[in-house]
Amino acid sequence: MHALKKRSPLRRVVLASAATVSGLVMLLSLKPHTPPEIAAAPAPAASSGSNSSAGSGGSSSSGSSSGSSSGGSTSGTRTVTGETVQTRWGPVQVRITLKSGRITDVTAVSYPTDNPRDQEISSYAIPQLRREALAAQSARIDSVSGATYTSDGYKQSLQSALDSAGL
């Protein structure tokens, strides 16, 4: 009976091993939430025509749309650039062209292209997002499966461009 109450050393070894493996799995599953600063540095240079070196996005939106938005807001053609949205995989920025208060064109000024996988995702996601934005005439569009971060950045930048245009 005394042998049954004794703790087994094998049991301790198994529990210690399981705890070590669990801790290692949790540690390796952590991913950084912010992109490295080096990857984000080239994006503001790609968005020409504004004070985008500050990186805040708010000044680039108002800077690139202020000259064209003061003209005929209901009948003329004008272009408005949205804020640069930093996503997990890189910056996303959208430029819209408006004519008579309707979106006639949507152009992705910057989007993730750092590696072949980013280029592949962007090559099918950006055209789909453009088609949906033109059809919806708003930023209320569906995300593209497999490109969630890019889709979210695209919608945020599109909404900031629409806000700057007063739509």
- The portion of residues forming beta strands comes to 15-25%
Level of helix content? Answer: 40-55%
Average predicted local confidence, pLDDT: 74
The CATH architecture can be given as Alpha-Beta Complex
CATH class: Alpha Beta
Number of domains: 1
Total of DSSP H or I helical runs spanning 4+ residues: 7
Quote the CATH topology.
Answer: Sufe protein. Chain: A
Global outline? rod-shaped
Give the radius of gyration.
24 Å
Structural class: alpha+beta
Number of strands: 4
Q: Which parts are unreliable, with pLDDT below 50 for 5 consecutive residues or more?
A: 35-73
Give descriptors for this structure.
167 residues; alpha+beta; Sufe protein. Chain: A; four-stranded antiparallel beta sheet; 4 strands; 51% helix; rod-shaped
Describe this entry's structure for a reader:
About 23% of the residues have low confidence. The chain is rod-shaped and about 85 Å long. The chain is of the alpha+beta class. It has one domain: Sufe protein. Chain: A (Alpha-Beta Complex). β3 and β4 form a beta hairpin. α5 crosses α7 and α6 crosses α7. Strands 1, 2, 3 and 4 form a 4-stranded antiparallel sheet that branches. The chain has 7 helices and 4 strands, in the order αααααββββαα.
List the helices and strands and how they pair.
Layout: H1 2-5, H2 9-29, H3 37-40, H4 42-46, H5 58-69, E1 77-81, E2 85-87, E3 90-99, E4 102-110, H6 116-136, H7 148-165
Antiparallel strand pairs: 1-3, 2-3, 3-4
In short:
The protein is of the alpha+beta class. Helices cover 51% and strands 16% of the residues.
